[in-house]
């Protein structure tokens, strides 16, 4: 009786096989459509999220979001006509994103690093004026300043596997959402370079740095000269006031 029941079940299942296959295919299609709809909803929020990331200078998150959104819009969602305006908008943003990153990189390379030196000299100047020491202002100590060259330990440059170590150090860089992104200049510059690499704009970055090098260095000299002149003038004014007879 059991054998007969099993045979009848087998026959019934065999009859229903095409129907079951059709339902199974429909289920897969609906699941795929739902995934696409979820993706479309997420992509529609990308411009707003991108603006927030750019405003808070979370450039790595912004780059990842933008690159993945453009890839989706030009890949699985290419046939969705309703997203054509968004596709054009995000594509143009992706094309211009590297210009913002290059500007930030230059700001940290030339302006932020020299500002630190200027602030130290001002602090030393204030200390010397408080002490009323007539001796010349001490030389600025730049040995402890974190420069891009100190991004890696000096020992890494001499080791045979220095290139691989350099790559891993850049790959390990991640954005910390709790900290100020610009607090550590070297890490911030690493994030910018990583973002530029994701945008595949490293050749353009190198060219921009080479083109702007002379101009930026001249600006450093100009700013430093103005700063030194202002400090010297202020110091002279203080000395002339101190030595005035009453």
Automatic annotation (TrEMBL):
- Domain Exocyst complex component Sec8 N-terminal, by residue range, is 1-52
GO cellular component terms, A-Z: exocyst; growth cone membrane; synapse
Gene Ontology annotations of biological process type: chemical synaptic transmission; Golgi to plasma membrane transport; protein targeting to membrane; protein transport; vesicle docking involved in exocytosis; vesicle tethering involved in exocytosis
Q: Which residues form the Exocyst complex component Sec8 middle helical bundle domain?
A: 181-231
Matching InterPro entries, A to Z?
Sec8/EXOC4 (IPR039682), Sec8_exocyst_N (IPR007191), Sec8_M (IPR048630)
Give the record's keywords alphabetically. Exocytosis, Protein transport, Transport
* UniProt keyword Transport, yes or no: yes
- According to its UniProt entry, what is the function of this protein? Component of the exocyst complex involved in the docking of exocytic vesicles with fusion sites on the plasma membrane.
The record's comment on protein family reads: Belongs to the SEC8 family.
* Protein name, entry field: Exocyst complex component Sec8
Name its species: Merops nubicus
């Amino acid at each position: 009786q059991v054998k007969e029941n099993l045979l009848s079940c087998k026959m019934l299942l065999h009859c229903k096989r095409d129907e079951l296959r059709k339902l199974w295919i429909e289920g897969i299609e609906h699941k795929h459509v739902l995934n696409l709809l979820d993706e479309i909803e997420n992509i529609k929020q990308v411009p707003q999220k991108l603006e927030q990331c750019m405003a808070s200078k979370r450039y790595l998150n912004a780059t990842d979001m933008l690159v993945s959104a453009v890839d989706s819009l030009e890949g699985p969602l290419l046939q969705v006509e309703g997203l054509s305006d968004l596709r054009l908008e995000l594509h143009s943003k992706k094309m211009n994103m590297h210009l913002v990153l290059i500007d930030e990189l230059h700001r940290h390379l030339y302006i932020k690093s020299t500002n630190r030196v200027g602030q130290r000299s001002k602090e030393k100047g204030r200390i010397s004026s408080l002490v009323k020491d007539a001796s010349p202002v001490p030389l600025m100590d730049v040995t402890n300043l974190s420069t891009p060259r100190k991004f890696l330990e000096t020992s890494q440059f001499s080791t045979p596997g220095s290139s691989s170590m350099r790559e891993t150090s850049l790959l390990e860089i991640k954005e910390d959402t709790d900290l100020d992104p610009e607090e550590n200049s070297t890490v911030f510059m690493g994030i910018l370079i990583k973002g530029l690499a994701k945008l595949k704009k490293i050749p353009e970055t190198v060219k921009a740095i080479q083109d702007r090098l002379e101009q930026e260095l001249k600006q450093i000299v100009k700013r430093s000269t103005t700063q030194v002149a202002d400090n010297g003038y202020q110091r002279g004014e203080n000395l002339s006031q101190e030595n005035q007879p009453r």
